[in-house]
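From: lab user (bench 3)
To: helpdesk
Subject: output format question, protein + pyridoxal-5'-phosphate

Hello, I'm new to running complex predictions and I'm not sure whether the block I got back is the full result or only part of it. Here's what I submitted:
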Amino acid sequence: MAHDHDASRHRIATRAIHAGQSPEPVTGAIMPPIFQTSTYVQAELGADVRYDYARVSNPTREALERNLAGLEGGRHGLAYASGLAAIEGVMKLLSAGDHVVTEENTYGGTNRMFNHVLSRLGITFSFVDSRDPDQVRDAMRPETKLVYVETPTNPMMRLCDLEVLAGIAHEGGALLVVDNTFATPFNQRPLEFGADVVIHSTTKYLNGHSDVIGGGLVVNDDPLAADLAFVRKSTGAVPGPMDAWLVLRGMKTLAVRMRAHNENGLTVARWLAEHPGFEAVHYPGLPSHPQHALAARQMEGFTGMVSVELGSGERAKRFVERTRLFALAESLGGVESLIGVPALMTHASVAPDRRAFMGVTDGLVRLSVGIEDVDDLLEDLEAALKGL
Ligand SMILES: *Cc1c(COP(=O)(O)O)cnc(C)c1O
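Helpdesk reply: Thanks, we reran it on our side. This is the complete output you should expect:
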């Protein structure tokens, strides 16, 4: 049976396993070897070689990139050393004087890169609430090159309308860039709504096993892909082959893991919403979420990310220190459940007034619901709440 190189016509669970994958030509190995090499021997001087140096290209990394592109339904994938390296790879398409319209509630590290690194290099940013397309439209300038958003956002689970924002960006001659780390391509594929660049921290759901730092981009446009590859080759933020292989291995089970995360996330969110011990619950899959209709239109599932208001920093601290299965840790998207207080952890680098503005209170607790038995997770939350 011929091996299917082009899995693009298949459904996503099949694409996760087969997209861009073919047996290794020498042995027929079904998994791509880990090409742990820095360089490749050339048969003669000046020959036109496919591989010359591993910063530029590596077959293990390329297997990951084809799979990532296949999952997002795009033509080109690029892998990076981290999610932030992938974001930096996009931002270095810009020059001093260029302007970016972005969401005020992005990942804390993204906010820090924009405000404390890229601003020094002469790139300017307008931070808006991208739930409201008018705010994005009003912030556009002649020198605006990118509209940069996340949906859902971390940790407030706000959404933006990708189709509407793609229209606004393109009308202004800018690209729409979407960090799809929270949703994953299993639940949301931004290119289908007109986005130009999709970003991932593969550290999270795509790798899924909390054992790698990595990042990736997916685009459709050929010249844009070439520009991004040029920046990456010229700045060097590539993943090693072992990490690329681990992420690829993780992505093959994306569909089964995300079904379980979606199911457990919804069950935990419903339980929190009905429990008198908690205040507001933020989860796009709940009908009480103010943008639930948009979520249902734009997403196919709502992930394992839930945030909940405990009312005070003291209560939040005691709660996250009392759970046993939910481990107190940064990060998200692994098979095991994690818990944290964004104001003191992921968003500690965001100024307190900006945090308050975003709704990231000291009493807000963020859960990354894993794929354990959900009854054990609910018992853990109930036990932690008792005697707070
Ligand atoms: C973690 C994360 C990043 C940064 O990725 P790293 O792999 O940690 O560099 C960017 N965006 C989002 C939404 C994230 O959750």
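A quick orientation on your result: Residues 82-84, 107, 109-110, 150, 154, 179, 181-182, 201, 203-204, 213, 215 surround pyridoxal-5'-phosphate (CB under 6 Å). Let us know if anything else is unclear.
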